Amino acid sequence: MGPRAIDPPDATEATDALAALAAGLRALPPSCGPVRLVAVDGHAGSGKTTFTGRLAAALGGAPVVHLDDLATHAEPFGWTGRLRTEVLEPLAAGRDAAHRVYDWTLRRFAGTAAVPLAPVVLVEGVGAGRRAVRPWLSRLVWMELDAAAARRRGERRDGPELAEFWAGWALAESAHFAADPSRPYAGTVVDGVTGRIAPSTVGETSTTTLTCGLAAN
After folding, report:
1. How far is CA 136 from the centre of its chain?
2. Whole-angstrom Cα distance, residue 141 to residue 24?
3. Cα–Cα dist 154/204, whole Å
4. What is the dihedral angle through the alpha carbons of 117, 121, 125, 130, rounded to the nearest 10 degrees?
5. What's the Cα-to-Cα distance from 140 to each of 81, 132, 150, 200, 211, rounded to whole Å?
6. Are 56 and 122 in contact (CB under 8 A)?
7. CA distance 58 to 12
8. What percent of the chain has pLDDT over 90?
């Protein structure tokens, strides 16, 4: 008899997984004033936005900062100053925050996004776990999907009209992670294909494996 097939996680398992992760994040010490700041990092196309949205819901509607709103065409990774002054420093002082939002069509900042003070605030995007941000973090979550697979997923999602953008982005992303990797500092890893969550604390071994359904976004 061959090995028994393993059924994919059902909705109950996925909900339980997110609930367990959310509870663990709430129990962490604050890292940014009264806030537990949690970063979700990974290659573009690895599923960060979808996972972060589900995690925010499991946390009861936790605020989310999308780094795509702070990056620009000219400076895809030049957002650290804006993140610090517009988001991190107000939260650290116990105040609500708000940041400017970059319009990728108009190619300029237009409008703002509110980031209310909350027990847990999520920051998602490529480079969310970079060294300039890590001192502010309670936890770094890494979406485990290699760069080539993530790029193929993103290109399928965005269509051929953005092929030139993806070619340029891939070079910038590769250079960023070569100089400033996030993956070695992740306390929680989420498989970008299966959605499996393997929670642990940096420097400790996790013996628990959770599962969570994950859309390819």
Report:
1. 15
2. 13
3. 33
4. 100
5. 19, 13, 19, 10, 18
6. yes
7. 13
8. 62
